[in-house]
């Protein structure tokens, strides 16, 4: 069976393309064209599709999507906790989930999460490759076996750090933060130990064969992404990006769908350039960015630093934002952190979509604004991005002034009744109407 990319190249509209078109209120022909050009992907493993996957599209003609990373760590692992995190992420509106588990039984965790995951599900297979062994001991056979196994389990997209090459490593000397990607660091250690090229690069054609068979989408990893503002847009990052451009073309020629991962920590003024250069080098393949975080000095608030960067990234060229939680750089996130991270990234994505003028994107904003100016609290809260939090905060505030029933309140505690401009504005409108 053909991949979505091969199907699109034959100018055939698959059920998945049709489903994405319906969800996004866009023509299926346009989805098919963008897919064929490599500018849009539908990460949908054939086996996950047969189970419970609702196909989603990622590309510039569509709304910006948000991914939530979950997963156990080597010192804290519980499948129940990860399922809770996935539920929190989906409830908050995550469009995709990545399981980055490195602790406990990785296969069991992945299979249990996948069985309950209706959205595209991604992994970084190299994490499992080193399970129970030192990185120096891994070889091509082990890598292929893990990748094939995860494809058979139904994973929809794989982060593959094939772009970090031996010749890039000397460029890291001037860096402040070095390598911050786990996959990038593991592969760099392997290359230095064996004095050999990155095995994922060497066996890239074999990987394409496996990914095409199950239609697993490549997410070409940025193992040399800058991990601090000082390292942004440096030589190492750009050298890897050039290799990612070459690999994008090779994978697409082999019939595979491809996304490309991007930075990282980037000052606000460099985001536009980063988005444009990726689009050029990778010929419009969907760009999947982590953040980007626009300052290093806000641990505890990196869902905010990344949302600021995320809006700019999505405005200038990214199609897919990986969330960042308030726990980033500090510890393994819990379900509350996951929720806060997804909401922040959804705000970033939506703000960019409005600014890009995507059809229908601002309809919810208009509905909410109308409800707000009519003091229609029920609709105001229901139309908000996070109705649960909005309702909780409003109810708490109402209780403070002894108003229990929301529809009866024609002001809130922010300004008080006398000073409520929304209420006064309502009166002004009535007066104008009656004149
Ligand atoms: S009291 Fe102030 S904040 Fe509250 S609804 Fe009226 S204008 Fe808005």
Short description:
With 435 residues, the protein is α/β, with parallel strands linked by helices. It has helices at 4-9, 15-24, 28-36, 46-51, 79-91, 106-115, 126-129, 140-153, 182-194, 199-202, 204-214, 235-253, 268-281, 302-316, 335-356, 363-373, 377-382, 387-400, 421-434, and strands at residues 40-41, 58-59, 65-70, 96-99, 121-123, 157-160, 217-220, 258-262, 287-290, 320-322.
Descriptors:
two-stranded antiparallel sheet; globular; 19 helices; alpha/beta; binds iron/sulfur cluster
Describe this structure in words.
- The protein is α/β, with parallel strands linked by helices and 435 residues long.
- Helix content is 49%, strand content 9%.
- It contains 19 helices and ten strands.
- The protein has helices spanning 4-9, 15-24, 28-36, 46-51, 79-91, 106-115, 126-129, 140-153, 182-194, 199-202, 204-214, 235-253, 268-281, 302-316, 335-356, 363-373, 377-382, 387-400, 421-434; strands at residues 40-41, 58-59, 65-70, 96-99, 121-123, 157-160, 217-220, 258-262, 287-290, 320-322.
- The strands form two sheets. Strands 3-4-5-6-7-8-9-10 form an eight-stranded parallel beta barrel, surrounded by six helices. A two-stranded antiparallel sheet has the order 1-2.
- The longest helix is centred in the C-terminal third of the chain and has 22 residues, at 335-356.
- It is globular, with a radius of gyration of 23 Å.
- The termini are far apart.
- The mean pLDDT is 95.
- Residues 411-412, 414-415, 420-423 line the site of iron/sulfur cluster.
